[in-house]
Amino acid sequence: MKLVFPIKNTRRSPALISPRAYVNVTARGLQLPSKALVCPFSLLAKTITAQGTWKRYFLSADVYCAESQDFCFVTGFGCGGPAVALAVEQLIALGVKEILFIGLAGSLQEEVRPGDIVLCDQSICADGTSARYIQRETVSSDPALQNLLARVLRAEQVNFHTGRNWSTDTLFRETKAEIKHYRQKNVLTVDMETSAFLAICKRRRIRGAAAFVVSDVLHTGKWSPDFSDPLIWKNVRQLAQTGRFVLGR
To answer: What range does the domain containing 144 cover?
Structure first.
């Protein structure tokens, strides 16, 4: 007899704690804007909220709501699929219907260099969180939202890649065998949140898309981090500002 409950039965069964029931306890009466830019890096809060009037809430994440726009910026929720799931489920339960996720990712291909922007059209669900929402090997960004982000970036003359991402559960168990496998499948990047994020969007039937800035390189067989490179954080800010414009259209 297997000790672990079958994951396929988990997907089919109703949850004991619903997001709506949870926010009724933690954020009773709160209604959020319908559009959200979600990014784990709190340092972007000053950039995003530099103009206008904002209200700040805490819902397992810092939520900054623009008083004059149908838009909020969500940050400070931590790393990995479970962290982004806890934050995004609450956002959706409180009225958010369109989300753009921005993060950092590792490069799996030579042409994808540190500081490059990558739009994720599809993410490989090699994490544990997405499997509790959908039964698929891959999950896709919303085509209309991704295409709009791409058009705006092109209009701003910002270069970017578009391709597949691989989501995994832990930074410290990304193996050479996996990297070789996904390189052969022409997967561009690896991260820890995107599959979970997109799986929730798919399950809850809202629009979601993801984009990254490359912060480290894995395709050489060695880990080469570039987190201190100013270009990375410049492009994170660029991507965030573009994302805010896209969502505020």
So the answer is: 18-247
